[in-house]
Write a structure and sequence with these properties.
Blueprint (H helix, E strand, L loop, with lengths): L11 H6 L37 H4 L1 H13 L4 E5 L2 H10 L6 E5 L4 H11 L5 E5 L4 H7 L5 E7 L11 H10 L3 E5 L4 H4 L9 E4 L14 E5 L4 H13 L5 H11 L2 H21 L3 E5 L9 H7 L7 E6 L3 H10 L4 E2 L9 E3 L1 H5 L9 E5 L5 H13 L3
Parallel strand pairs: 2-3, 2-4, 4-5, 5-6, 10-11
Antiparallel strand pairs: 1-7, 6-7, 8-9, 9-12, 11-12
Helix pairs in contact: 3-10, 4-5, 11-15, 13-15
Length: 386
């Protein structure tokens, strides 16, 4: 494959739509081939052709998707994983026994669950602090011992905003790295490395792929340092890597990322404003609402829209929430997010008895449908609560 010579002069929208504009040299194909081969022929002099020996670290299908992701996030390098959790766990497994991790309360519950269940056996010390509480960060960070400060912004499912710059400044003063889960904002709206973060994590299953047919994760780093090399070595040695076909589907999905996010953000803003005006809703969580507590930070960190995730609470409690989600026809009752289809979920019942999510809350993932159809679907459900 070869790269476009004009890469640096093109917008990220164009680079995403053209998947960096690479052309396969042998056939001159614009759409890249899939390389299913698990191994590669060695040269007679025992050297490896283009450094490739085995698919686990060397599959050519990985290269284009990884470089596009790195480009979109303004990073140095990207590494793909078989799932978002595989990407997260690879970071924790690259730590040393006795290292300290701080996360904010709103990070993905799967990350919290892993740290609570397995972190101690790996020798990882773990502290959780409230979202965007810089005073708590200063209180609990241990200079020289805290290795990672992990944040998610906007955070699921209350969509709290965290000031990446402020957290990064405090973390770096104490020798810690900042990891940002950028799944919800995507590099279309927020590029955490530009605000001081060290590594960006994506559950690429969600918006990056965007079609609900790929399970994948990704990490993008600002610098190729010793810690990043540990992650790369772990990925090679432990093998939590995606298949070539899934990687090809991810690249296909990223071609429409900017287009999809523009429509999704427009739809979400309209839906959030409708919900805020409805008498059955007690509160609407959406960064694009001026009344939302994190709106000012969202304006600082999110450009081009405020994302596609909304949560709202029902005045009549859990029974009303369950009834509303049952009555929707356009929204699909399913977990996950970032699909072209809109989803509705009673989040607390999905997370189970350990959840801190209010049981009167419904979470919406807004898709690319007609906004009026989505609003009418919700209106019909809300207007007919018994």
């Amino acid at each position: 494959m070869m790269k476009m010579k004009t890469k640096k002069n093109l917008s990220k929208e164009t680079l995403s739509a053209q998947a960096l504009g690479w052309i396969e040299e042998y056939s001159r194909s614009i759409i890249p081939p899939i390389y299913p081969s698990t191994t590669f022929a060695r040269n007679a002099d025992l050297s490896y052709h283009e450094g490739r020996s085995y698919t686990r670290g060397d599959n050519p299908t990985y290269k284009q998707a990884s470089e596009l992701l790195s480009c979109l996030e303004n990073g140095k390098k990207a590494q793909l994983f078989a799932s978002g959790m595989a990407a997260c766990v690879s970071i924790f497994q690259s730590l040393h026994p006795g290292d300290h991790v701080i996360t904010t309360e709103g990070v993905y519950y799967g990350v919290q669950n892993w740290l609570n269940k397995y972190g101690k056996s790996w020798g990882i010390l773990y502290t959780q602090i409230p979202d965007n509480d810089i005073a708590a960060l200063n209180e609990f960070i241990i200079s020289g011992k805290t290795r990672i400060v992990w944040i998610e912004t906007p955070s699921n499912p209350l969509w709290n905003l965290i000031d990446i710059s402020a957290f990064s400044e405090t973390a770096h003063k104490n020798g810690a790295m900042v990891i940002v889960d950028n799944t919800v904002a995507t590099p279309v709206l927020t590029r955490p490395l530009d605000f001081g973060a060290d590594i960006v994590m994506h559950a690429a299953t969600k918006y990056l792929n965007g079609h609900g047919d790929v399970l994948m994760g990704a990490l993008i780093t600002k610098a190729e340092n010793e810690f990043w090399q540990r992650i790369i070595d772990l990925a090679h040695d432990a093998g939590p890597l995606p298949g070539s076909f899934e990687t090809w589907l991810l690249l296909r999905g990223m071609r429409t990322l900017f287009l999809r996010m523009e429509r999704i953000c427009m739809n979400a803003q309209k839906v959030a404003e409708f919900l805020q005006s409805h008498p059955e809703c007690s509160f609407v969580y959406y960064p694009g609402l001026k009344s939302f507590p994190g709106h000012k930070i969202a304006e600082k960190q999110m450009h081009g829209g405020f994302g596609g995730m909304i949560s709202f609470r029902l005045k009549r409690g859990r029974s009303a929430a369950v009834e509303v989600q049952a009555k929707t026809k356009v929204f699909k009752r399913a977990t996950s997010l970032g699909l072209t289809e809109s989803l509705i979920e009673h989040r607390s019942s999905y997370e189970g008895p350990q959840t801190k999510v209010p049981d009167d809350l419904l979470r919406l993932s807004i898709g690319i449908e007609n906004a009026d159809d989505l609003i009418n679907d919700l209106r019909n459900a809300l207007d007919n609560i018994k």
